Amino acid sequence: MTCSESEPLRVCLERTVELEGARLRLRDWPGFSGPLVHVPDPLSPDDEVVQSLAARFAPSYRIVCIEARPAQPYQVHMDDVLATLDQFGFASPTRIGERLGCAAARLLPAWYPGRTAGLVLIDATFAAPSREDSIEARALRDCPPNWTTLRTAVRCPLLEVAWNIAGLESLSSFLQIP
Q1: What is the pLDDT of residues 142-164, one digit of tens each?
Q2: Neighbour tally for 172: CB within 10 Å
Q3: Structural domains of the chain, count
């Protein structure tokens, strides 16, 4: 394939972000606008969503995927995302939560208004599978936040979509918000 063909050249940089007491995996697809910060489902074994986001939006948008610290509750995931944003100097990016990652993605703009330009929730679920016994799942079952109150506290533009072609089209339109 040559550079003149229609498929844009994409580069994914793998990094380890060192936070106080934690090392997180971060994947970064450079781009001209953004960033779009992806908060993946901590219990999902695949990376289909972030790979599709990068294929669709990079290099027009910078895509940053911050993987959750293993065996930690959603509140710690949110704090890790905030610390990573601070470390990179991202004042108020658009955040994209995926399935259970929507819990941490939604907490940040509710607790820190002004730190999120927009919030996208893909296949949002706020209840862990009953068969799952991880700390992540138990935190959602044993200490669930009041999602209605948190939704009311979110002041940035919000898009909730299913992960399908129509959802990607909605996300494309959403990103046109000034």
Answers
A1: 888 898 999 999 999 999 999 99
A2: 11
A3: 1
